[in-house]
Design a protein that fits this description.
277 residues; mainly alpha; MetI-like fold; 13 helices
Length: 277
């Protein structure tokens, strides 16, 4: 490839990356811009600069959406889901990676089918079952539903990491006197930590933003998640768009900060999971 062709390829690459970056960051920039504007300004021109900064949008959104309570509920639900999915998913993935499963194709089909099955198929039976058991407005019960939904994805991804770990490490640990549980906890889990972190980030993002199940099973105001309380800010006939934008920014900010802080490990984990196994 000549020098001119190489520079042309590099230029096209930078242009494409620049366009994709703009497409990705534009909604976030627009959200930040409109979060400090009044509702009439947003309706008139959402792309214009604000005449004055309306910081009171954040205080009103914080109070009206009951964020001190709902954000804590979202954090509890997300943490419980991550803990359950990573625990059960890593144990299942380790067994499937190390044991010879004769019907592995059937297991794979089952995992893929449960991953793609829409939750609406099970929503009504789940609701009536939970109502009989008295589990409506129970954050732990909703975390169990999330775990059932997203565990197949976690198992499929983590299995590729365990397959990539040499068996010799396990055999050496067993020769040194370690129990099978110690081999899993002290040898396998640390080596599969990039995959576990990747699963935790993805599952955490899904759990934090999930709406349908949360609004169905968590109906009391003191049990609502942040996403549900954000939805309730919209009025039937009119809405304070400045307050809504500020509330959306409050919900999005923790996820963005966490992803930026762990993006390197997340990308490494996704790349590792795509080539191993």
């Amino acid at each position: 490839m000549s020098l001119i062709e190489s520079r042309l390829t590099l230029t096209i690459t930078y242009i494409v990356l620049g366009v994709l970056t703009f497409i990705t960051l534009f909604p976030i920039a627009l959200l930040i811009l409109n979060s400090v504007k009044s509702a009439p300004e947003i309706v008139q021109n959402p792309l214009a600069m604000p005449e004055s900064l309306r910081w009171d949008n954040f205080t009103r959104a914080w109070d009206d959406a009951r964020f001190p309570t709902t954000l804590m509920n979202s954090a509890k639900l997300t943490a419980l889901t991550i803990l359950l999915v990573c625990t059960t998913g890593s144990l299942t993935a380790y067994v499937l990676a190390r044991k010879k499963v004769a019907s592995w194709k059937i297991v794979t089909f089952y995992l893929l089918a449960t991953t793609t099955a829409p939750i609406q198929l099970f929503l009504f039976p789940l609701y009536f079952g939970f109502a009989r058991l008295g589990l409506i407005n129970n954050i732990f019960a909703v975390a169990l539903v999330y775990t059932a939904i997203w565990s197949p994805f976690a198992v499929m991804l983590l299995r590729t990491y365990f397959l990539a770990i040499p068996r010799e490490l396990e055999e050496a640990a067993l020769v040194d006197g370690a129990t099978p549980w110690q081999v899993f906890a002290k040898v396998m889990l640390p080596m599969a930590s990039p995959g576990i972190l990747t699963v935790a980030l993805i599952i955490g993002l899904y759990s934090w933003n999930e709406f349908l199940i949360a609004t169905t099973f968590l109906q009391q105001q003191d049990q609502m998640t942040a996403v549900v309380s954000f939805f309730l800010l919209s009025g039937q006939y009119s809405s304070d768009w400045g307050e809504i934008m500020a509330a959306a920014l409050i919900i999005v900010l923790p996820v963005v900060v966490l992803f930026v802080a762990l993006q390197r490990r997340f990308i490494e984990g996704m790349a590792g999971g795509s080539v191993k196994g």
